[in-house]
Amino acid sequence: MKVIISGCNGKMGRVLVRLIANEKEMEIVAGIDKHKDKFENTFPVYEKACECKEKADVLIDFSHHSAFSDILKYCLDTKTPLVMATTGLTGENLRSLMKASNEIPIFQTGNYSLGVNVITNLAKKAAASLGDDFDIEIIEKHHNQKVDSPSGTAYLIANGINEAFETKKEFVYGRYGKSDKRTSTEIGIHAIRGGTIIGEHTVIFAGPDEIIEIKHTALSKDIFGLGAIKASKFLIKQKNGFYNMNDMLK
What we know:
The protein is an alpha/beta fold. Helix content is 31%, strand content 26%. Its EC number is 1.17.1.8.
C-alpha cells in the first residue's frame, strides 16, 4: 500500500512515519508539510498538496484544519482515498467531506483510538438506559500545545450520547456564572489543558444518590497512529462513501 502523509513532520506525523516503517505491506511515497525541511525523510516532502507528484493508494491527514481545503481538493483531483485524522474541523468541513465521499472513499472520526470508540458506544448505551434522570458531563484533558477546544473526541462522545435521545441535548461549554441552574436538557463539556497529557476523557452520569463514570486514558500517541493505519487498510477495500470507526469495528 502506497501512502502519502499530510503533516508528516508534525508530532502525529512522526509517529506515523515510525509505525509505518514497521509495516511490511505499507510504504510512504510522499509527505506534505508546511515545514518540509524540518526533518530528513526517506521520501520527498512538499509544502503544498498540489505540488505532490507521487501517486498513492491512500492519504492520511494528521496536519492542521487550515490545510483542509487543499488536502480535500488534492484527493478529489487524484481520486485518492482519504483518512481524515485532523481535529478542529467545522460543520462546513464535515459537510464537504460528506459531499466528497460520493467521489472517493473517506474515513473520518474524532478519535482513532479503538478504546475511545468503545467507550463512546458504552456511553451511548448508558444514556439510553439512564435517560433524563442522570445529568451528563464530559471532561477532556490534553497537553498545553493542543490548539482546538473542546477536543474532537469530546464531540464524538457527546454526539454518540445524543443518538440515544429522541430530543437532542444542548452542549454547554464550561459553567461560568451564577444566574442559571443546570437543566436536564444539557450535556456539559469541559476542557483542561496542561503539561504533556496525551489525552484523557471522562463521561460522568450523575443521578439521584449515585454516580457512574466511564473513562479512557491514552498513554501514548501510538494508539492514534495504529488506528489510522487500520483505517487505511480498511478504506482501500471500500467503495466511494463516508466511513467511521463503527463501520470498521463491525
